[in-house]
Fold this sequence. Notes:
Blueprint: E1 2-4, H1 14-49, H2 54-65, H3 67-77, H4 83-99, H5 107-124, H6 127-135, H7 141-168, H8 173-191, E2 204-206, H9 212-240, H10 244-272, H11 274-279
Amino acid sequence: MSTTATSTAYAFTPDERRRGMFYLCLAVGAVGFTIAVQMGLNANFFKDDLGFTARDLGILEAVRESCGIWALLLLALLAGVCEPVVGAIMLVVFSVGIGGYWRAGGFGTILWVSMIWSQGLHVWMPLPHSMAMALAEPGKTGHRLGQVGAAGSLGFGLGLVVAYVLDWQGVAMRPMYLVAAAVGILGALACLRIPRDISTDKPRFVFRRQYWRYYLLCFLEGWRKQIFICFAAYLLVEKFRVELGIMLLLRIIVRGLGTITSPRVGKLIDRVGERPILFI
């Protein structure tokens, strides 16, 4: 099952388009920054600070990911609200949840604040692409979507670097969550500067029986991804006692390698096709 959406034409002035894209990219970069700090800290925070077991993490991840289902209902209920305002509200919810880690003292509290930030993030996730499509000049949709993706990657990388520097300076993990939340709030404020006349056709579900292999691949990829995200970093901390600074440095290296190799992989796909690369 997938969703499709197309942009509805609106006569934005060139200045409105530039301003809208600038603040949209700021918001997306802020979200990338916040997620990077949260992901970079979580394994050490859950194990070293809270003493979570692998079973605790599995339950937490399963419950948190269920927010993606409720995001569909929330998007339907908010259909009459302009997307920049919805985005701003959801980024505030997201930031409040991330900031809640600062005071979390046990599994129950972590579960609730994780559901809060996850719900805000899941509702936010489809909005940047639809807003970029609406703001794009005719014939430049791909370019604008690329700019949004680049802003998210830049924010993510910057978040990892800032977390590494803060750890190097001796800052504890809990205050770093507050830093991440503050940047998320700045992203919400940026959303409010995006033109509110944005209008896009609402997503609709599309299901085709002949695409069942693609749906199966997406399901298996999501399964693999969540298991890796949930347990890979935790394994390094729990079994090998890897410290936070090393964990952050590893993530920075992996991010840098991904930035370098991604264009080359794209060119390889153009040359040999998608199937061989997916098989590899």
